[in-house]
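ok so for the tutorial part 2 we go from a plain amino acid sequence to predicted structure tokens. step 1 is just haveing the sequence, like this:
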Amino acid sequence: MKKVIFPLIGIILFSISGCGLKTVEDGQTGVKADFGKISDQPLETGWHFYIPAVSWIEVWNIKTREMKETANVPSSEGLISTLEVSLLYNVPKDKAVTLRKTIGRNFEQTVVEPYFREAIRNVASGYKVSALYSDEGRNKIGRQILEFLREKLEHRGVIVQDVLLRDVRLPAVFSDSIQQKLKTEQESLQKQFELSKAEKDAEIAIAKAKGIAESNKIIAGSISENYLRYLWIDGLKTSEKQIVYVATEANLPIMEAGRLKEAGR
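step 2 — the prediction. this is what the tokens look like for a chain of 265 residues:
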């Protein structure tokens, strides 16, 4: 019963006194001021009381934040490209008080956005459009923007974590030339493939022709007059009817002896 009564009494007394209450959650810190003077110590997580007439408490987000920016950037050739870039940053707890004292609660609009835009334009404008097209070029631009922002912001209390180039839209004239180049390269690769295939087919045909020629040469070299006479005599044993071809001395067409005999009947 006492566990319920005492908190209720505290809340009633707090309401009567006119005090204010701020809750600082995980991922947050608090900046407190008494009589206009900001305390050097940030507030920890939990409940914090203050008197509105003489003090105030601001709750600051110390988690990682993302700022997106879309910028039209001229290249070194004077062509306009569109970059979509994300900045990841945060304000650590031990820097929140300093940032509040030196810049104020609207530090993002005061310093982060202007420096972010300046970094994108200054860095990217020194490159050719072709650099934005390649992964290596985009990574280099991202690193230079990151270094620029760290130099400008971290001593003020803003920790720059990373810079990400989400999207790059190249000038239409350059995009068309890239598409034409890719098309030409594809056609060249196709022609090389067809040429290679034709050369391989020709090699196969030549190899087959050489094999046939070599086979015919071997067969021709193995046939002799005695071997042919042997085949003829051996064939007479297996056939009842034989047609005998007799060559003339004048190399005239050979006639069938069996048919001549039938013709004389």
